[in-house]
Amino acid sequence: MTNPKSRWILHCDCNSFYASVELLEHPELCRQPVAVCGDPEGRHGIVLAKNEAAKKYGVRTAETIWQARRKCPDLVLLPPHRDRYRHFCNIINNIYLQYTDLVEPFSIDESWLDVTHSFHLFCEHPAQLADRLRRQVKETTGLTISVGVSFNKVFAKLGSDYKKPDATTLISLENYRQVVWPLPVDAMLYVGSSARQTLQRMGISTIGQLAGADPRLLESTLGKLGGELSRFARGEDAEPVRPFGSREPVKSVGNGQTFRRNLEGEADCRAALISLCDQVAARLRRSNLWAGGVQITIRDPDFRVITRQKQLEQSTHLARELFQAGWELLSRNWIFANPIRMLTVTALSITDEPFAVQQSFFEDAPKPDPRREKLEKSLDSIRQKYGSAAVTPASLVKNQLGLPTPKIQDRPEEEDEGFARPKGPL
Ligand SMILES: [Mg+2]
User: Is 0.70 topped by the overall pTM?
Assistant: First the structure.
């Protein structure tokens, strides 16, 4: 096996992908601030993507048109065309595949390429191959990409963010301390806002400080993630680039439970559904996936089964949105007085696209909730740190259904959007 530090990995990232694809159809708008929005006509649509000019006004993804227009009154709004994004995604990955079979898409507009054993067929240095890919993608599609060139996936990804649009950044064994270490910790993949805050409290704000910190201390504070981040900061990410198409497409993510006693009545059903949606949403977030639909399966004590499903207006990985859809299905299709032996929640139409909007729903206003997103992600990191029972929906405290509950049985004091926090190390 190749020494992990002698690999050559490229991370290729399309610049402002959705907006750039839309602008191919509207070259006259290139210099104007442009946003792709779920519902350009209505006030409540949200920004799905924006071009460089709009970024300069501070327009952000997932904010409402109303918020974006306050910062940039001349913002031009265009509707999204998912078929076109898929089309260009295929063309671009096929270009990458001309240079190596190790092409691993990370999202619709980003892929890693391992060119360790193939770059020399095309040029003298992998950075020259990166330049060649940029030219070829631009000539073929009119779109620009940024490429990070490094000896591991995490640094290659950081390199493609380092300079854009249309740039190559080399992060080598020789220069990574000068290039990477002065950067803030959250420039690195897998450092979310809660890990950043925890590290900040430990006096760690740069990747260099992270690399120099005691790995055991990081692990005791951040759990398994701490150890991983420590290795990544020191350039010790040995994760392979998977061959194209080898990632098993995840078709659904589901959690089901047979309860300690049958569910009876609305309160039982609600508690069970909250718990299951919570688990499914956490699994989606861990895999960086979003659900476009929800299915519930109900089994009664006589083992009769009913299954009902519903498409969502836009993809989600939030428990609350899965619950809303699940609750609608349950309350429409079940008489609460009838007992339920087993309930399963399955996330369907799995995608790696956040805010993927259903074609038929463009007129309706999709409303992602950045606050909710932040809350649920911070719950993930609390659970990672203190165990899955550390934070539990209030309705599950002291339940007799066998649902996961906090170990500490004190009455919850603090409530945050329906979640009770037990007294404890928090
Ligand atoms: Mg991109």
Answer: no
